[in-house]
Amino acid sequence: MPTDPADEIAAALARLRGRRPRPPFPPEAHHHPHGGHGGPWSRGAPPWTDPAHGRFGGPARLRMLDALVAASGSLSVSEIAAEVGVDQPRASRLVQQSVELGLVAREPDPDDARRIRVRLTSEGQRLVSGLRGRRRDAVRSALESFSDAERAEFARLLAKFADAWPRD
Q: Which of 75, 93, 117, 155 could form a disulfide with 5 if both were Cys (CB 3.0 to 4.6 A apart)?
């Protein structure tokens, strides 16, 4: 069964979302746009209520949820940090906020009782499914003026580009 180019493009865009090249300056020199190290929620506005970020709290949370879906199971906080492209303290905050939202749950690591694993809850799965549906619809809308051959070629090239994009 042939795959839908819109699905392939949406998947490639999701893969690109988590692959950001490192800045050309040391991490300690990075200026945090929100001041402090707590982000916008340190000023009392939780990210899921910020109209600029939507209910799920922004791109980093979406990358985390996408990583959990792609894992088809649970991930450690370290694995989440690597997949999302953030440091471990930021990944821990994303997990904590997502637990509070009911999007993920913590569970003990069966191989190491000192560690936890993080998995999507049914609410998290519903949210990701809805977001992916909207992403797919947006891609389909953007492809309306493309011919079938152009859609297939664009999907092939974008997937190749996403696969080659550096992870570090």
A: 155
